[in-house]
Here is the input.
Amino acid sequence: MTAVTRAARAVSAAVLIGGTAVAVAACGTAPPTSPEAESAPGRVRGGWQEPASYTYTLRSSEGERSLLGTFRISVREGAVVKAVGLDDSARRAVESAPGTVPTLGELLAELEQARRDDADTAEARYAADGHPVRIVLDWSENAVDDEARYDITAYDPAHDRRAGAPTAPRPAT
Here is the structure.
């Protein structure tokens, strides 16, 4: 199987199982003590549940994929409602395939799929609140261009501006 085919299959699987990331995150083990602890293979950060609405900045790099560049992403009711490319690569990606810009849940689903597929590398780092800040994937160490690295910054859960309370998270399924 070529590296491009393998990466495309993983992305497709991530899109199909995006909704399961919330349930997986909700059923994880206790969080590590350090604010940005690396997860062990098969371990999911248990203290964070993807909210229904939030914004974040994604820097997607490495590999031969259409989703490369830096994006500012808005998620509402669990779906990407706005993606702005902050560099030329990201602008091209948003123009050519806007549906491929992921939620954090979809990125976590891709991580879990890579683990189930026994990828050579499937690692994540988490912030103190449990949201992912980096995901590194490499399906085959010996293959060229099947890697993916996602750096997540400027994560901002949406708040009800009238009441000042955070938006209620989606229930786990």
